[in-house]
Design a protein that fits this description.
The chain is α/β, with parallel strands linked by helices. Helices cover 38% and strands 17% of the residues. It has ten helices and eight strands. The two termini are 18 Å apart. It binds SN-glycerol-1-phosphate (1GP). This is Heptaprenylglyceryl phosphate synthase.
Length: 242
């Protein structure tokens, strides 16, 4: 399999599943066979090794890439197709920028399969979201800040992707577009509150990769449709590929 950073360049639509929420086998089968490009396993609270392993094992039964997003080092499950490491660029706590990552690498550094690991530079924008509270993110910002975070992620930190995160809320297109302006090659992820076709289209035009999470648990049929909503929309101003 190619490096995760290369594989990510082909992701247009991804589902994010939460190990702390339950999903029936038939729902999981539909999610994994709906034509999405990858399933990311991750969440903010109640994440354990046991619930992460259980969900990852179930997903790996299906022919879809299964990638774990690591928020707690003790929950890392060997055998996933890749590992995404969040770096919360607008966190006011050092912990979510380098400290948690440093501790994990100090412990497990000799065994990390780096070709299957990629950093996601997050900018968390929904003030009331669990992730914003947990990471003490500074969510108040102007569009120029987003452009600057995007440049910082790509040109200073050399991150493969910037993630505009509105978890639980549909975000502002102008903010996603401001992030776009700062990027040349790094990929732009958007996630947050997608529940209708028009919303998916707007964000698919602005971003490279659209993440659908909650909708899987709220309205499975709509979530399955979201694959088509995203994939039938062309992005404009996409990051340049090599
Ligand atoms: C969450 O960005 C993802 O990390 C998706 O957001 O759950 O609101 O779809 P939703």
């Amino acid at each position: 399999m190619s490096m995760l950073t290369e594989r990510m360049k082909t992701w247009r639509h991804v589902f994010k599943l939460d190990p702390n929420r339950s999903l029936s086998e038939s729902a999981l089968e539909k999610v994994c066979t709906a034509g999405t490009d990858a399933v990311i396993v991750g969440g903010t609270d109640g994440i354990t090794y046991e619930n992460s392993r259980e969900l990852i094992q179930r997903i790996t039964e299906y022919p879809v890439q299964c990638v774990q997003e690591i928020s707690v080092e003790s929950a890392v499950v060997p055998g996933a197709d890749g590992y995404l490491i969040p770096v919360v660029l607008n966190s006011s706590s050092h912990r979510w920028v380098v400290e948690a990552q440093h501790q994990a690498i100090r412990k497990y550094g000799d065994w990390i399969p780096w070709q299957d690991v990629a950093a996601l530079g997050y900018v968390v924008l929904h003030r009331e979201s669990k992730v914003a509270r947990l990471t003490e993110s500074r969510t108040e910002m102007e569009s120029a800040d987003l452009t600057a975070y995007a440049r910082l992620a790509e040109f200073l930190f050399r991150m493969p992707a910037l993630y505009v995160e509105y978890s639980g809320m549909y975000g502002e297109e102008r903010m996603v577009r401001a992030a776009r302006q700062g990027l040349e090659k790094s990929r732009l992820f958007y996630g947050g509150g997608i529940s209708r076709e028009e919303q998916a289209q707007v964000m698919s035009r602005a971003a490279d990769t659209v993440v659908v999470g909650n909708l899987v648990y709220q309205d499975l049929e709509a979530a399955l449709q979201s694959v088509r909503w995203v994939k039938e929309t062309e992005t404009n101003g996409a990051s340049q590929d090599d």
